[in-house]
Automatic annotation (TrEMBL):
Gene3D superfamilies: NAD(P)-binding Rossmann-like Domain. Transmembrane segments: none annotated. InterPro entries: NAD(P)-bd_dom_sf, Sc_DH/Rdtase_CS, SDR, SDR_fam. It comes from the Bacteria. CDD domains: SDR_c (cd05233). This is Oxidoreductase. Belongs to the short-chain dehydrogenases/reductases (SDR) family. One of its GO terms (biological process) is monocarboxylic acid metabolic process.
Length: 254
């Protein structure tokens, strides 16, 4: 890639995987646009980064806000990397999943990445190339009960990834997806709380149950996901596009 300044855009940047992504890219010398709803957390990230982080408070479910944020980013120059990390889930059987919940999951998990790619990708290509990294889930490749909206959204994100990879293959833009298993994030905490409430098990027991769904018997750390993304953003990954990387502790436990 020929762009002179390393700039990354990370959505869902205020916590969990997003926060680890921002910190990891900063350590690699990037300037990072950090996008999330939590303005205070973004400002804290900016203070910790000694000016390398540009906080931008935004609800990515708002199409107009995504377009406005993209234009603001482009005013400062085309980014080299876009990580579509923001994601939400709804845990309920389909007959208890409201249409409103379904639409919000799709808006955050699929429509926002589509919009950011549509708005930023052409400028990245014109500037010499770039990297699009979508944060999916193991739910992008298999069905998981009680999360039909979430699974549908992550399957759609996988399809978007593969389509854009083919579409921009001759423009020095790679598009890949990283699919974490259970990771030490708020989503894991919420799942543990739900298990405890439903089954009466302690949160420690719930944590062990979720960890044991991975063959390695442990959950993934956000920094491990960030490290994989840094590789996909590097020159060493210039020929990798349209790929899905599972980071799931060896897959399902046998």
């Amino acid at each position: 890639m020929t762009t002179s300044k390393k700039v990354a855009v990370v959505t869902g940047a205020s916590r969990g995987i997003g926060r680890a992504l921002v910190q990891s890219f900063v350590k690699e010398g990037y300037e990072v646009w950090a996008l999330a709803r939590a303005a205070d957390a973004l400002e804290q990230l900016a203070r910790e980064s000694n000016g390398a982080v540009r906080p931008l408070a935004i609800d990515v479910a708002d199409e107009a806000a995504v377009i406005a944020a993209s234009r603001r980013i482009l005013e400062a120059g085309a980014p080299r990397v876009l990580v579509n990390n923001a994601g939400i889930t709804v845990s309920a059987p389909i007959n208890k999943t409201s249409t409103e919940d379904y639409h919000r999951v799709m808006a955050v998990n699929v429509t926002a990445p589509f919009l950011f790619c549509r708005e930023l990708l052409p400028a990245m290509a014109a500037a010499g190339g770039g990297r699009i990294i979508n944060i999916g889930s193991i739910a992008a490749t298999r069905g998981v009960k009680y999360t039909s909206a979430y699974c549908a959204s992550k399957h759609a994100l996988l399809g978007l990834t593969r389509s854009l990879a083919a579409e921009w293959a001759r423009k020095n833009v790679t598009v890949n997806i990283v699919n974490p298993g259970w990771t030490e994030t708020d989503m894991l905490s919420n799942a543990k709380a739900a298990i405890s409430k439903t089954t009466g098990r302690s949160e420690q027991e719930a944590h062990a149950a979720l960890a044991n769904m991975h063959a390695m018997g442990r959950v993934i750390q956000p920094e491990e996901v960030a490290a994989l993304c840094l590789f996909l953003a590097s020159d060493a990954a210039a020929s990798i596009s349209g790929s899905a990387y599972n980071i799931d502790g060896g897959g399902e436990a046998g």
